[in-house]
Design goal:
single chain, alpha+beta, Aminopeptidase, Nonspecific Lipid-transfer Protein, Chain A, twelve-stranded mixed sheet, five-stranded mixed sheet, 11 helices, 31% strand, binds coenzyme A
């Protein structure tokens, strides 16, 4: 494979990067009005390109913070907009873009990078691992009856798309980052959301739940209504800060008329939606899949910044050929993590560490399939409880 030169693009080249990305996703070049919405997501100094001599590949990111188990926030890069022009793929262009982007993130002190992958075979080689999982839920609205003890109370207000877009950042802030792997959303992120919402449906609605102290939950949805086939209400965002808001939003969604089925997309695995209903089976789960991929850019900081569960300490020996400063041994125990010279009890690569980091898979499962090399037979069980999280990690932000 050739070693492609890549560089940070000038802002005048950002639209070309956007069009290139759209092309790789089989979309036509974007219209001016769409670019006006999305341009804020293309930040100076954050868009990489490869030229030959015309632009043939692009990758970008925006900076945010990521919530860790225990509540600390660390600087992260939300990586997106990745594509290589058809006819120029499989020649090392993405490899060059990834290498440059990750090295630059490391130099800037970014602790982790995260992305949502179009295909599962692309990013493991660059040290990314599946770190959160999600499931889609389909609710048979006509059969769905809430159990009598379901929390009640709290008013809801519904806004159309134009009125709701300016409210989203404040609503998202009000619901907090209750799960590990959730991220703050800077303006660049909202630019992408606005553009996406208009592309999905101008009929998109936002329902806001008012708790005792103001808004404490919101959901965005649109109804695909057609007399010829069952009508669907599709839920995109759904964030809440209290059980009352969770139940109140579901109570509202079930009340929307001319709807046969409610589809809630990419929800956390342990969200208790089925438990709201008299009949557990009104909810079906057609899809469970990887939600976000994590690349630990600064392993020592990532390991020291999160809190751990109970368990005997383990010594991880981590390999990271792309960012070799991460390679080394780390002692991880209930009190925290630090570099060590001690003999390793578990040996793994940095992508597998990403899979372990938020507890998406227990260490014992990763060991059982050979992704973790076990040097002390007791270590996987210890790592299971050390890295396990009380609630399932979930990113909840698509970018
Ligand atoms: C995914 C994509 C960016 C890969 O770009 P690329 O320049 O072909 O990647 P590279 O040539 O650097 O590939 C590096 C390695 O990854 C492999 N690889 C890359 N894309 C792959 C894919 N989609 N499936 C399986 N393997 C893939 C290559 O075969 C190569 O393996 P090798 O080192 O063993 O030979 C490009 O195919 C693309 O634009 N796809 C459509 C848009 C898309 O899915 N973007 C990703 C958004 S998250």
């Amino acid at each position: 494979m050739r070693d492609y030169p890549v560089r940070l693009l000038d802002t005048e080249e950002h639209r070309a990067a956007w069009d290139l990305f759209r092309g790789t996703m089989h979309s036509p070049p974007g219209k001016d009005e769409d670019w006006d919405r999305v341009r804020g997501a293309y930040l100076a100094g954050r868009v990489w390109g490869a030229s030959d001599p015309e632009l043939i590949g692009a990758a970008r990111s925006f900076d945010a913070e990521m919530a860790l188990p225990g509540g600390n926030l660390v600087p992260m890069a939300a990586v997106t907009g990745i594509g290589v022009r058809a006819g120029r793929t499989r020649r090392g262009v993405l490899t060059a873009l990834q290498t440059a982007q990750l090295r630059e993130l490391a130099e800037r002190g970014v602790v982790a990078a995260s992305l949502h992958a179009t295909e599962g075979a692309i990013y493991g080689r660059f040290g990314y691992g599946v770190t959160t999982l999600c499931r889609d839920l389909h609710v048979d609205r006509h059969r769905a009856r809430l159990r009598p003890e379901t929390p009640a109370g709290g008013e809801v207000t519904v806004y159309g798309l134009e009125d709701s877009v300016p409210r989203w950042p404040e609503l998202y802030r009000a619901t907090g980052l209750p799960r590990p792997a959730m991220i703050t959303r800077p303006d660049a992120c909202w630019a992408g959301y606005e553009s996406l919402a208009y592309r999905i449906s101008e009929g998109m609605q936002t329902v806001v739940h008012q708790g005792p102290d103001g808004p404490d939950g919101y959901a965005t949805y649109h109804v695909d209504h057609d007399y010829e086939r069952p009508s669907r209400l599709e839920v995109f965002a759904f964030h809440y800060a209290s059980p009352g808001a969770f139940a109140g939003l579901w109570r509202f969604l079930l009340s929307v008329d001319l709807v046969d089925e409610i589809r809630a997309l990419e929800r956390p695995l342990d969200e208790p939606v089925e438990l709201l209903f008299e009949d557990y089976r009104v909810v079906s789960v057609p899809r469970t899949e990887d939600e976000s991929w994590l690349r630990l850019v600064d392993v020592p900081t990532a390991l020291t910044a999160r809190a751990y569960g109970p368990g005997s300490p383990v010594v991880l020996e981590v390999r990271d050929p792309l960012l070799p400063a991460n390679t080394g041994r780390y002692r991880v125990g209930p009190e925290g993590a630090e570099r060590t010279d001690a003999e390793p009890t578990l040996r793994l690569d940095v992508a597998t560490l990403a899979m372990l980091y938020f507890g998406a898979w227990p260490a014992s499962a990763l060991a059982a399939v050979g992704r973790i090399e076990v040097l002390d037979a007791a270590a996987p069980a210890s790592a299971d409880t050390l890295f396990g999280t009380r609630t399932a990690a979930w990113c909840g932000s698509f970018f």
